[in-house]
Amino acid sequence: MTSATSSGAETGELSSSTVQVTFDDGIAWVVLNRPDKRNAMNPTMNREMNVILDALEIDDRCKVLILTGAGEAFTAGMDLKEFFRETAGFDPIKRHRMMAQATNWQWRKLRYFAKPTIAMVNGWTFGGGFVPLIACDVAIAAEDAIFGVSEINWGIIPAGNVTKAIEAVLNERKALLYIMTGDPFDGKKAAEIGLVTESVPQSELRATVVALAQKLMKKNPITLWNAKVAFKHIGEMDWELSEEYLTAKAIANARMDPERGSERGLKQFLDDKSYKPGLGEYRREE
Ligand code: COA
Questions:
Q1: Ligand 1: centre distance to CA 38 (Å)
Q2: Whole-number Cα distances in Å, 71 to 38, 166, 234, 279
Q3: Quick one: pLDDT at residue 90?
C-alpha cells in the first residue's frame, strides 16, 4: 500500500525489513535501514535489495535512484556476524548462493542499472560497502563521512569484488595504501583521491544530491542509460573492440530512443538555431 508523507513523498510497498524506499518527484530514495547495526549488509538486506532494484528498474516513479543509509552510516560493510561468522559452517553451495545474493545487487544490478544512480554517502563506509558505493554512477559524500578498506584490520583480503571495485576508480598508489593499511579517511580525502565525485558539508549533502538528480532527470533517459553502460563496459576492452562496440551501441541507442533525441537536437541547433548543445540539452517536450 502506498501512502503520502508530509513532504509529499510516497512511501510504502517496496520498503522491506532492512531497506526503506520512498518516491519523491522522480527520485527513488533507497535507504539502507539498519541504523543500530550501522547498516551492515546482512543476508536479509542482500536478498531484499535484489527484489527492490528489480522492481525500481521498471517503476516509472523512479527516474533517478539515490542510495543512502539511515542514521550515522552509509554502510559499515558486510555484516561480520550474520554474513561471516554465522555462515562459516554452511555447505559451499549454500554459501555460494548467499554470496551471489550479495554481489548480484551490490555491483551486477547496481552498476548496470537502467537509470542514473547516485550514492549519497552520509557517514561510515567500510569494506564491502565500497562495492555499492563504486557501482553507483556518481557518489557525493559528506566531508565528515569516514571510509575504510578495513578488511586487513580483521585478517581477510578485500574480496566480494571490493578489490575490483577499488581498482576501477583508484590509482595503484592510493588503492594499495588503503588496502594494505586499512587506515580510515574522510570524505574530503575520498573526493581528492577520486573514490567519490565530490564532498560537501553534511548540511549541504541532500540538497546537492537532489539538484544533481534533477539535472539528470532532464536528459534523454535511454541515451543516459546507454552512455553509462557503455562507459562501464569499455574499461574491459582494447581500443579496437571498444570502437566496434561503441559504434554498435550508438546505432542501438538511436534505434531504441523513442524520442529520437539526436534528430531533435540537430534540428534545434542547425535549423531552428534555438539552442546550443555545448551549453545545455535540447528541448525534449516538442
Ligand atoms: N557487521 C556487523 N555488525 C556491525 C558492523 C558490521 N560490519 N558494523 C557495526 N556493527 C554493529 C556492532 O556490532 C554494534 O552492534 P551491537 O549494538 O549489537 O553491539 C552496532 O553495529 C553498533 O556498532 P558500534 O561499533 O558500537 O558503533 P560505532 O558508531 O562506535 O562504530 C564503526 C561504528 C562502523 C566504526 C564500527 O562499528 C566498525 O568498525 N564496524 C566494522 C566496520 C568494518 O570493518 N566493516 C567491514 C565489513 S566487510
A1: 6
A2: 7, 25, 37, 39
A3: 86
- The pLDDT tens digits of the residues spanning 250-271 come to 999 999 999 999 999 999 999 9
Residues 83 and 193 grouped into a single domain: yes
Within a domain: 282: no
Residue from 38, 131, 133, 181 to probe ligand 1 pocket by mutation (most atoms less than 8 Å from CB): 38
CB atoms closer than 10 angstroms to residue 150: 20
Do both 38 and 112 map to the same domain? yes
Query: Is 231 in the same domain as 213?
Result: no
Among 227, 187, 224, smallest CA distance to 208 is for 187
- Both 143 and 231 in one domain: the answer is no
Question: pLDDT, tens digit, for every residue of 139-153?
Answer: 999 999 999 999 999
Q: How many CA atoms lie within 13 Å of 90's alpha carbon, on the beta-carbon side?
A: 15
CATH of the domain at 56: 3.90.226.10
Q: What is the CA radius of gyration of the chain?
A: 20
pTM: 0.95
For residue 115, report the phi and psi dihedrals to the nearest 5 degrees: -130, 160
Domain around 227: 221-271
